[in-house]
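Notebook entry, structure prediction.
Reason for the run: the old model in the group folder had no record of what sequence produced it. Starting over properly, with the input documented here first.
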Amino acid sequence: MREKWPVPTKDKLLADIEEADVTSRDVRLERLEFLLAEFGPPADMMLIGGIGAMFAIQELQSSFLNGNFMATIFCCQTFVEHSLAGGYALGGQDDLVESGFKKLTEQSLADGGISAPIAKRLDELREMRNPYTHPRIIQKRQSLLDRVVASKSDPHSMAEKDAREAIQILVDYLRHGCTSWTPSKHEANA
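New structure, fully documented this time:
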């Protein structure tokens, strides 16, 4: 038998959830507005990143909305990596599929699948994500603490700013692949 901790009553748990909902409603509303302004209405575009990309795009929005900023950054990078790899998988270039985000970005740029500005943005995403993913020695390779000090903000604010930037990088990548998926072109077609 697995040993488990005691759990409060369902009534107590529900009261805690309701209180948290009320307390966080305004910030979640602002985050939802940001997501809608970036992603807009559903688009008719082919996403080739498979199940991993599907989960990532859904979970990044939920994560951001609920203030899980590190998870948002990871999901943004996961979506792009699965999408870049998906193109190579469809082309039978299996050696590239598992080569990693940096190599996929470099190869996509070399093959003309992405532009130099998009490759630069994707590298910014990779560099942003790395200190969250990999432990770093302070002042040797940029650590999270180094980034907090440089940003002159608290860790939570820095992570939220990073998550917003990661979302914008992902949207830039999507718009590059589907040039009709922009607010101005959507308005013209409406």
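Summary: The longest helix spans residues 10-39.
The old model has been moved to the deprecated folder.
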